[in-house]
Design goal:
Blueprint: E1 5-10, H1 12-15, H2 19-29, H3 39-50, E2 56-62, E3 65-74, E4 101-109, H4 118-127, E5 134-139, H5 144-152, E6 156-161, E7 171-177
Parallel strand pairs: 4-5
Antiparallel strand pairs: 1-2, 2-3, 3-4, 5-7, 6-7
Helix pairs in contact: 2-3
GO molecular function: acyltransferase activity, transferring groups other than amino-acyl groups
Keywords: Transferase
InterPro entries: Acyl_CoA_acyltransferase, GNAT_dom
């Protein structure tokens, strides 16, 4: 990662001040994303996720410009995260306690800043100190670059999931154990 890129942690209250910047970067990453990747839907998603206890954001900035971010939160016992999961999954896989699973919801890097190690740095910074026994994320099965990165960071595919939102794609469900992150 470039030495001029700085990482910063934010809780939900701090992140509310930069929501417009977060949304703008999201739209730069998904410029032709259709209804599922629309500004309105993402603002609702982000606002809902920010209400989750333990929600955390890590931003990457260069010369004051937001160039990437990652955020997530622990899944509560009443989570709807697993709605739309395809079967079969291991027994008890979707049972949550609020401390079992950290959901990595977004990991985004501005297109002009990609392939510089920023995604890996954000990933490792956000997940490196988590206490949950595992993490999960939903990955586009056709995003081969992201899939390769996730595998190199210790993620493995469990099944597929299609969120209930209109126009939601079918995602791969990936998990990785908590604790130390592998380098790479």
């Amino acid at each position: 990662m470039s030495v001029d890129v700085r990482l910063h942690h934010h809780d939900a209250d701090q992140a509310r001040r930069i929501v417009d910047e977060l949304v703008s970067l999201y739209l730069a990453v998904y410029p032709d994303g259709g209804e599922f990747h629309s500004e309105d839907r993402y603002r609702r998603q982000l606002g809902g996720h920010m209400q989750a206890p333990g929600w955390e954001l890590v931003t990457a900035t260069a010369k004051g410009e937001l160039v990437g971010y990652a955020y997530g939160f622990p899944l509560s016992a009443q989570t709807r995260w697993w709605s739309g999961i395809q079967q079969p999954v291991p027994a008890g896989f979707t049972q949550e306690s609020g401390t079992r699973t950290f959901a990595l919801s977004e990991l985004l890097v501005r297109p002009s800043w990609q392939h510089r190690g920023i995604g890996r740095a954000l990933h490792h910074e956000l997940l490196g100190t988590r206490a949950e026994e595992r993490s999960t994320l939903l990955a586009d099965p056709d995003n081969f670059v992201a899939q390769a990165a996730y595998r190199s960071w210790g993620w493995r595919k469990i099944t597929k999931l299609q969120p209930s939102w209109n126009g939601a794609p079918l995602y791969d469900v990936l998990t990785r154990p908590g604790g130390q992150l592998r380098s790479g």
